[in-house]
Design goal:
The complex is a heterodimer.
Chain A (H helix, E strand, L loop, with lengths): L3 E3 L4 E4 L4 E7 L6 E7 L5 E7 L4 E3 L2 E6 L4 E6 L8 E8 L8 E2 L3 E6 L1
Parallel strand pairs in A: 2-11
Antiparallel strand pairs in A: 1-3, 3-8, 4-5, 4-9, 6-7, 7-8, 9-10, 9-11
Chain B lengths: L3 E4 L2 E4 L5 E7 L5 E8 L3 E10 L2 E4 L6 E7 L2 E6 L8 E8 L8 E2 L3 E5 L1
The chains are: A mainly beta, B mainly beta.
Chain lengths: 111, 113
């Protein structure tokens, strides 16, 4: 079983749609969690951190469920520019900052 | 954008040849990482450094070595390249060891024939 699992997609949605991605992780002692965004043939970039209380940044909402060991990302009012691969990232406890990346979920927003 | 560059950006080499990839940062961050990214696997950590001359292995370190003689430079060497090392290599930096985020370089596309 992979340490971080994501549905690779692709998710094909029309502009304006709401789309949600989930990610599960296996290490219950994991400390911190992130969503990164990666455009085609580009480097990953931090989208947002994920807190137990949930957090929102504009159209993006991230939530963490420690009991069920999953993380979610909700994108509202999708834009064409949201098309990218979204990487779920976990920082396991006491691993010296060695992040564990999911393989990513591909999102394609169509006009 | 964080000041991270990687060189070369693209390289084609033959099996059995040594290859060195360079990561250079201007942020004076303590931590530096080398990842490879392959379809179906996501990003996997090869080696990382937590200071000058301080390095440790990651998940997929076999066949790779690293060196960090200066804060700003982290070198990844493939001692004898194999076709299985064809991949996209990303360098990343971070200021802290987990609470902060990692900033990635633009990547190096390596093809081993």
């Amino acid at each position: 079983r992979k340490e971080v699992e994501q549905d690779p997609g692709p998710f094909n949605v029309p502009e304006g749609a709401t789309v949600a991605f989930n990610c599960t992780y296996s290490n219950s002692a994991s400390q911190s969690f992130f969503w990164y965004r990666q455009d085609c043939r580009k480097e990953p970039k931090l989208l947002m951190s994920v807190y137990s209380s949930g957090n929102e940044d504009g159209r993006f909402t991230a939530q963490l469920n420690r009991a069920s060991q999953y993380i979610s990302l909700l994108i509202r009012d999708s834009k064409l520019s949201d098309s990218a691969t979204y990487l779920c990232v976990v920082n396991p406890y006491n691993q010296g900052g060695k992040l564990i990346f999911g393989q990513g979920t591909e999102l394609s927003v169509k006009p | 954008d964080a000041g991270i560059t990687q060189s070369p950006r693209h390289k084609v080499t033959e099996t059995g040849t040594p290859v060195t990839l360079r990561c250079h940062q201007t942020e004076n961050h303590r931590y530096m990482y080398w990842y490879r990214q392959d379809p179906g696997h996501g990003l996997r950590l090869i080696h990382y450094s937590y200071g000058v001359k301080d390095t440790d292995k990651g998940e997929v370190s076999d066949g790779y070595s690293v060196s960090r003689s200066k804060t700003e430079d982290f070198l990844l060497t493939l001692e004898s390249a194999t076709s299985s090392q064809t991949s996209v290599y990303f360098c990343a930096i971070s200021e802290s060891d987990g609470e902060g985020t990692q900033y990635f370089g633009p990547g190096t596309r390596l093809l081993v024939l």
